[in-house]
């Protein structure tokens, strides 16, 4: 599928191991998969129906290569990811194969439910050029100001490194999940340690829960 759109923006990545967190904390940091409405999650152009859901799994299971998604008609994939509350998205990990089927570009769109490939002609909220990541250690940091109130995330894998199809084994999401209730707000903070750059503004968080 060719869409004739330009790619702006860009983003840097950092090795998740830089934080030197214990494995249990790394798993906690990437716990936003628990807050995805999997029944409504869509992956467009997947070769096997329902396989796109399988890449949103615990960080500790990212090396499980029995669960993966491969594109069908061409190299593109489009994930429509509804959350069960509001999310402040801070980082993404995307893990692929050690060949040209690994994604080379990722485009993020927020709050466009039921997004289709026709909708990818619009300007994304952020675009990343990807490096090959075979171990699930490279995190791509989002522009938090743009992803601070996300109830639906679309991930468009627009390119790979030259193969006919694209293969993805794991997508990890890091950030905070907020459940909106009538009289209270519950915040789940999915990050192992605070990044000072993310917290320049003092915030009041009534309840912070870690999901284990």
TrEMBL record:
GO biological process, one term: regulation of macromolecule metabolic process
Record's protein name: PITH domain-containing protein 1
Gene giving rise to this polypeptide: PITHD1
Its job: Promotes megakaryocyte differentiation by up-regulating RUNX1 expression. Regulates RUNX1 expression by activating the proximal promoter of the RUNX1 gene and by enhancing the translation activity of an internal ribosome entry site (IRES) element in the RUNX1 gene.
UniProt cross-references to InterPro entries, sorted A to Z: Galactose-bd-like_sf, PITH1-like, PITH_dom, PITH_dom_sf
Any one Gene Ontology cellular component term annotated for this protein: nucleus
Record Pfam families: PITH
Top-rank taxon: Eukaryota
Positions of the PITH domain: 21-193
């Amino acid at each position: 599928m060719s869409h004739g759109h330009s790619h702006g923006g860009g983003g840097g990545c950092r090795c998740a191991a830089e934080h030197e967190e214990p494995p249990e904390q790394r798993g906690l940091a990437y716990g936003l998969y628990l807050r995805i409405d999997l029944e409504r999650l869509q992956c467009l152009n997947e070769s096997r129906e329902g396989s796109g859901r399988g890449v949103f799994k615990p960080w500790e299971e990212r090396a499980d290569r029995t669960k993966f998604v491969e594109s069908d008609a061409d190299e593109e994939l489009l994930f429509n990811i509804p959350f069960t509350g509001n999310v402040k998205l801070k980082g993404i990990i995307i893990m692929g194969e050690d060949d040209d089927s690994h994604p080379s570009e990722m485009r993020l769109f927020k709050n466009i439910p039921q997004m289709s490939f026709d909708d990818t002609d619009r300007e994304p909220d952020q675009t990343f050029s990807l490096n090959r990541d075979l171990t699930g250690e490279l995190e791509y940091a989002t522009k938090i100001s743009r992803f601070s109130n996300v109830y639906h995330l679309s991930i468009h894998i627009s390119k790979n490194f030259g193969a006919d199809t694209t293969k993805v084994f794991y997508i990890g999401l890091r950030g905070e999940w907020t459940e909106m209730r009538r009289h209270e707000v519950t915040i789940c903070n999915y990050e192992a340690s605070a990044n000072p750059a993310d917290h320049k503004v003092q915030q009041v968080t009534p309840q912070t829960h870690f999901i284990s």
